[in-house]
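Form P-L/3: holo structure prediction, ligand zinc ion.
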Amino acid sequence: MTDTAVTETKNSETKKTDAKKPLPRPAPESVPYWEAAREHRLVIQRCNACGKFWFPPSRSCPHCLAADFAWTPVSGTGKVFSFVTFHRVYHPAFAKEVPYVVALVELAEGPRLLTNIVGIKPEVVTCDMPVKVVFDDVEPGVSVPKFAPLDAATKS
Ligand code: ZN
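OUTPUT (holo model):
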């Protein structure tokens, strides 16, 4: 009897809980990236010594190892370098989103970002497709940079 009651309680709790997506938990070196994203700005690090951009964030330039850099606004345009379409639900919060596209987008400035392609059916996403950043306000104070087809992003 007791066991049954416990089981029922657990089940009802599971049903009541709406699974939430895991939120970004920035490492110290990526805090400026997420603060800019909150303001719908895409910034990445640019080396003051060699002038190259890089991503993901790190404390020194991966090209010349200088630790002198500036967080620099970028165009937000790029192209799909590679992508996969997820059909399986790996986290309950993503159940309503399958199928969705996880992609490496190569920015016009060079670096590649791991992101989602949105605003387009997954089956028509192609490599080299021009895309532009859009910001998904997942909750107050947290916006995630994603990418949409350049045409659609320009229209909206
Ligand atoms: Zn450098």
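COMMENT: The radius of gyration is 19 Å.
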